[in-house]
Structures are given as C-alpha cells and as structure tokens.
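Thread: quick sanity check before group meeting

JM: Hey all, I'm pulling together slides for Thursday and realized we never actually wrote out the predicted structure for the chain we discussed last week. Dropping the sequence here so it's in one place. If anyone has concerns about the input, flag it before I start.
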Amino acid sequence: MTATTPAPTVEEVEPQPRPRPKGSTGRKSPLLTVLVLLTLPYFLLPLYWLVVASTKDNADLFSSFGLWFADFNLVDNLRDVFTAQGGVFWSWIGNTALYAGVAGVGAAFLATAAGYAFAKYSFPAGTLLFSVVLGAIMVPTTALAIPTYLLFAEVDLTNTRWAVILPSLVSPFGVYLMRVYAADAVPTELMEAARVDGAGEMRIFFTVALRLLAPGFITVLLFQLVATWNNYFLPLIMLSTPSKFPLTVGLAQWQSTAAGGSGAQALFSSVITGSLVSIVPLVIAFLYLQKYWQAGLATGGVKG
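JM (edit): ok, ran it. Output follows.
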C-alpha cells in the first residue's frame, strides 16, 4: 500500500515570475531617454506659450517678450471669453462636448463590435471587407468632406448637429485596432464555454467579450474623442449657424474677425484664452483615462 502525497495548498504554491516579452531586457535605454528629453520641448513649448499668452492683454501680447509673463490679466481674459457675443462661447463648449462625446462613444462601440466580428467569426467576404477597411484608413478625411456634404444636403441634414456626429461615428483605424486587439484578448475557449452554457452570440459579446475589450474600447474612444474635438473642416462646411459651431470653428471665426481689423482690440486675447480653455477638457480626459489606455497597449503588446 503506497502513501499518497497531499496536494499543495494555494498558500504553499510560490507565485511564478511573469515572463517578459521577447527582446525585452528590463533595462532602460539611455539613448531613448535622451531622445525623449530632446523632443520634449517641441511638445511643451507651444503649450507653455499658450499659458503665458493667456495671461496678457492685447497690448502686452504685442509689446512684451512672448515666452515670459507681463501684467496678469487671465481673470479679465476669461471674463471676456465667456461674455463675448452674449456668451456664445458656452454654446460652443456644449456643442463640442456633445459632438466629441457622442462620436467618441459611438465610434468606439461600432469599432469594437466590428473588430470583434472580424477577429472571431468567419463569414463570406470577410477578408474582402477587412481589406476595404484597411484601404479606408489611407483615405484622408478631408477628401470625403465635400461628398459627405453633398450626400447630407440631399436628405436635408446640413446645418444640423447630426451632420457632424454621423460622419464621426466611422473609424476605420478603430476597426483595425480592435480587430488586432480582439484576436488575442478574447479566448475562443471562453466563447465556446459560454455557448455550452446556453449563451447566444449577442449575450457573449455584451457580457463576456465587451468586458475583455474594455481597454481597447477606451483607446479607440480617446483617439476619436480627440479627433472630433479638434475637427475643423467638417463642421466648417456643414454648419452655418453660429450657435451650432464647435470650439474650432467659433475660435477661427473670432480670429478672422480680429485679423481683419474688426474688433481686433477685443478679440486677440480672447482667441488665445479661449484656445487654452478648449484644451483643458482633453487634458482632463487623458489624465482620467490614461490608466485604461496604457493597460490596453500593454495587453495588446504582450502575447502569452
């Protein structure tokens, strides 16, 4: 009669170190660190100038050194921005948040669903359709603006908020990104187990796959949020009512008025301060969502 050795408990099992990706040494590269430090001023200098210029009045903008402070007039500039033309800046902020928020969430959801379908299902012409998506990535969005305007004009959707939201729901790059991410993030065995338990395909997507694809979803949302927030040409040709303008078109209108000499003394500082205010929501969104974004990139870059 042989004695059996008891199975080790969870506490007795020593955790195994997580394997590193191939080619990773675990050490920082001094060369890459130097390159990052050299390129850092390129990205931070315009932001620094914007902050400094927002504290100046119109006279100091043209008479003082551009990269240093003069008389502090930020509070007065903010008051001028939010009260100019009957407070239309508030409408521009609300419109931009609406366009970017709806387009970001909608495009992220559609890209996630399409990428999941391309990665996990085989269907006729699937390869051809995905090739079309890849080809659409190469087409500049400005090249589609005029055809989109003509199409929307036929159905009387120009000068409406839908004219900005609907085209922004399409993200070919988001579909490609989610297709690559879903291929590894959603195990086929997990889908098979859900089918055995009686779950349908829609339930599998919404209760199983969508949770696993959340980091990629956030990544696409951030990309589309920034793209729609900074979009200028599409709302410029689609909208004609100032109360429906986003920040990009509204501030450009102020800039044109100032550069043309009409109300220049009141608008130069307002344009710059309004530009500073317009980037604050994007900074907040990145700071809040960056942990999900970084997790998505890390998970997609390491394969088991």
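AS: nice. The radius of gyration is 26 Å. The longest helix spans residues 264-301.
JM: adding both to the slides.
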